[in-house]
Design goal:
Three copies of one chain form a homotrimer. Chain A is an alpha+beta fold. In chain A, 25% of the residues lie in helices and 39% in strands. The first copy, chain A, is elongated. At the B-C interface, strand 4, helix 2 and strand 5 of B face strand 3, helix 3 and strand 8 of C.
Chain lengths: 138, 138, 138
């Protein structure tokens, strides 16, 4: 049983979903991972992780729109110092995932056919985001 | 330290919660699991995992109703090709869990007295769903 | 590779967020944890875990207010026997986390600078809550 850690840096273009599945697969291949558990940790409270359909790009657009309606910038928040998009960002992060642990079988993530792993940027401006990858396996 | 993988297949009856705790316990017993970590991964983006009260069935009905109000079929989604229930299904999956990792102590899940593990089907029609179980422990 | 289990008990003061990060760090230090994976499991369905900003206390207040608006006590729930705050509590638990797995590098949680781990109490009355900590690492 072996462990490995990596910090994946993703540059975002403001609010929206970025598919990071290929970066994860590339690191597993570089580490010659066999069977084990891969944990992703997003080191932010205004960006998060989400598993979604990777087939129709409209699914991502609809998800972004849903979360904008659910946590609108115009709501009466106390926390306003970091801009009107910051508190909605914290809410959206709370409603999605900061962490995902994905079983890996003989080097392959056990994702379903239509599953992709996405970084969900909640701030309006582009940001540099860091995700820790932790491998534990054979 | 030992690993094991299994694919659990669940037949759903359309929208709603199915308690899968006994299937998980049965597999742990079959594997003679001791102390370790059990990870569940739902291989779908229109069904998900949820931990809920297993005492009053009305809790499950109220949860289903809450999510139907939160992500109604009648909202103006772009993604419509797979039916009016598909985009709400993706939203509900995003708001709940695709993955759960449960500590196991001497063969027993460390669930609270009233906790059950449920598969949450979000599509209207019955579906065959697959959950990967990954065991890592002694 | 080594495992350890612990039950952390937290006394809450009714609805709201309690920062439990220092309790987690204290246990890791006591266990002389090196590099590995720490899993937290909340043994309740009316309290949950959440990762949030630990800088401005207004973020916690805004989060609490958001979830109260999203799952109000006044909604037409069937499940009423345990009080008007119980069904909203189950909904809020479903929308946040029952479990978190955090990579640990050389004894330190890989949290971002502003990330704190919170127990989110959803019931109105103070409660005694139990969180299982599971360590797997070197």
């Amino acid at each position: 049983m072996r462990q490995a850690l990596h910090r994946l840096t993703i540059e975002t273009n403001g609010q929206g979903l970025t598919d990071i599945t290929r970066h994860i697969r590339a690191w597993l291949a570089k580490e010659a991972a066999g069977t084990g558990l891969l944990t992703l940790w997003c080191r932010h409270t205004s960006a998060s992780l989400i598993v979604q359909e990777n087939a129709d790009p409209d699914v991502c657009r609809d998800l972004e729109a849903f979360f904008r309606r659910l946590a609108p910038e115009a709501a009466p928040y106390r926390h306003r110092d970091e801009g009107p998009d910051d508190m909605p960002a914290h809410i959206k992060a709370a409603l999605t995932q900061t962490q995902l642990s994905i079983p890996v079988e003989a080097g392959s993530l056990v994702l379903g056919t239509w599953q992709g792993i996405y970084l969900f940027e909640h701030r309006s401006a582009p940001h540099r985001r860091e995700i820790v990858l932790h491998w534990l396996g054979e």
